[in-house]
Amino acid sequence: MQIQKLPEFEKEFKQLSKKYVSLEDDFSDFEKVLVNSPKDNLRIDGLKIPWEFYKVKKFRCQSIARQSQNSGIRIIYRYFEDKEIIELTYIEIYHKNQKENHDIERIRKNFSK
Asked: For tag attachment on the chain, is the N or C end more exposed, with fewer CB atoms within 10 Å?
């Protein structure tokens, strides 16, 4: 599986990592699970783009003092599977208090044919 990150994702991740110190370790744990079941998250429909896009709402972040998996961190990614290749591209990461919803324009800008 090829894993990629948009530059915007990397910038957002770096900013959130400063606020939530456990984010890097938490993300690493999350990624191990995601690789085995990439389609188990909320699918984003209605984009009229031929690939599958998903939103992760149940992300456990140890720096956020809640006991549940719903820390408020949202991750948007694209999943692509073909006969010869499997790709996962991270598009966006944000806290739900900072932003109401994912950036549809970013998805269209980077993935429209």
From this structure: C
Query: Tens digits of per-residue pLDDT, 40-78?
Result: 999 988 888 888 999 998 888 887 766 556 678 899 999
Residues present in the chain in total? 113
Q: How far apart are CA 50 and CA 108, in angstroms?
A: 11
105 is written with which tokens? Answer: 């324009």
Q: Give the chain's domains with CATH numbers.
A: 2-111 (3.30.2310)
Contact in structure between 59 and 75 (CB atoms under 8 Å): yes
Q: 43 and 54 in contact (C-beta within 8 Å)? A: yes
Rounded to two decimals, what is the model's pTM?
A: 0.89
